[in-house]
Every structure is written in C-alpha cells, then in structure tokens.
Automatic annotation (TrEMBL):
Residues 95-163 form a coiled coil. It comes from Marinobacter nanhaiticus D15-8W. InterPro entries: DUF2959 (IPR021342). The keyword Transmembrane applies. This is DUF2959 domain-containing protein. Gene3D superfamilies: 1.20.5.300.
C-alpha cells in the first residue's frame, strides 16, 4: 500500500484529540464549555477567532491534499508500466487522504457556527442591560456589522465545503471502478475523466483561497477591535 501523506500522519493524534473535544462541544454541552472557558478568561469572541483560525488552517491543508491527490491520479495514468494493484493502491490512498481532510474542514466549520451562535445570542441579550441609549445604539451597530462580516465569512466557507463533494465523488468513482476492473480499460476510463476532475479541483482550490482570505480579514478585524 502507498504510504500516506506525512503531514496528515503527523497531525493525526493532535487532530483526533481536538476533534474529540469538538464532539463534546457539538454534542449539546456547548454552554457548559463556554461558561467554563469564560471562568478561565477566554471570552466567546476569543474562541470564535481561534476556531476561525483552525478552519482556515484546515482548508489550507485540504488545498494541498486535494492538489496532491490530483497529482497522484495523474501519475497513475502517466505510468503505464506500473502494476495495476499498485495503481489502485495509489489512487485509493489519495481518495482516503482527501476524505479525511474534508471531514476535518466540515467539523471545523461546524465549530465556528456553534460558537458564533452563542456569541451573537449573548450579545443580543446583553443589549437590554445598557442604561445609556447611545452606548446601546453603538453596540447594536457593532453587532450588526459583526454579524454581516460573519455571514460573509461563513458563506465563503460553505462555498468551499460544497466544492469538495463533487471532487470526492469523482475520486471515489474512479477508485471503485478501478477496484472492480483491474485492467487497462479501467485506467483508460480514469484518463478520460481527468480533465473534468482537474477542473473541479482547480475550482475547489480557488474557493478555498477565497475562504482563507475572508478568514484572514475576519480575524484581522477582531484583533484590531473591529
């Protein structure tokens, strides 16, 4: 079998631990988690920035993994003398690596949505505690601006997330077809599909670049106090 991407292997333990914590948070214990973090001095806005950074990093890794997977698919077509089983192992490994990073991206986006919902709900509730009408209006305006910026960010993230699905499906289709037909004809089918797969991967990478740029801008606004 082909050795997997070393970057993925190197981060697997850390990601596994982090995703276990995310599973607890997303499993219905969010408010307890956020309350505990606030007692430690971490406000929801701080957690939001951290999670946007994590989602940005996950998308950056996904870019590289999908690009590498495409190269591995292309190399299978371009090496006619390679054993068919070895070809299958190569593209199967590429697909599995891509599916793994895609799942990480999905979970990071869910974590961003979870904390943003809690942050905006708390912000709205606290508006009623103002005695100064002018300060309340300023805070309402800031809330609306932040919400608009967030909506733009999460839309970009979902655009990139949705782009992953057709690429993953195309990868899986080719893996399954080669698995069921370990012959030269199956390799020819992969070669015929490579043009469309390449276009899908290019579009995915462009959407992820836009999402990463939007994440950077969002983080910068928060760090600068908007």
């Amino acid at each position: 079998m082909l050795e997997r991407n070393p970057q993925i292997q190197g981060r697997r333990f850390a990601q596994g631990l982090g995703l276990c914590l995310l599973a607890v948070v997303l499993g219905g214990c969010s408010s307890m988690y956020y309350n505990a973090m606030e007692k430690l001095g971490f406000e929801k806005r701080d957690i939001l920035v951290d999670r946007v950074e994590e989602a940005r990093d996950a998308q950056g890794e996904a870019q590289e993994t999908f690009r590498s997977a495409l190269e591995r698919f292309q190399s299978v077509v371009g090496s006619p003398n390679t054993e068919l089983q070895e070809k299958y192992d190569q593209i199967s490994g590429a697909y599995e690596d891509s599916e793994e990073v895609a799942q990480d991206v999905r979970e990071r986006i869910e974590a961003v949505e979870d904390v943003s919902e809690a942050l905006f709900e708390e912000w709205e509730d606290e508006l009623g505690r103002y005695e100064s009408a002018s300060l309340r209006r300023n805070s309402e305006q800031q809330l609306e601006e932040t919400r608009q910026q967030y909506n733009q960010l999460i839309a970009r993230m979902h655009d990139a997330e949705e782009r992953m699905d057709p690429v993953l499906q195309a990868f899986e289709d080719q893996v399954l077809y080669l698995k069921h037909n370990l012959n030269a004809q199956a390799i020819g089918s992969l070669e015929n599909e490579l043009g469309r797969i390449r276009q899908d991967v290019d579009a995915l990478i462009q959407d992820m670049e836009a999402s990463i740029a939007e994440s950077e801008a969002f983080i910068q606004r928060f760090q600068n106090g908007q």
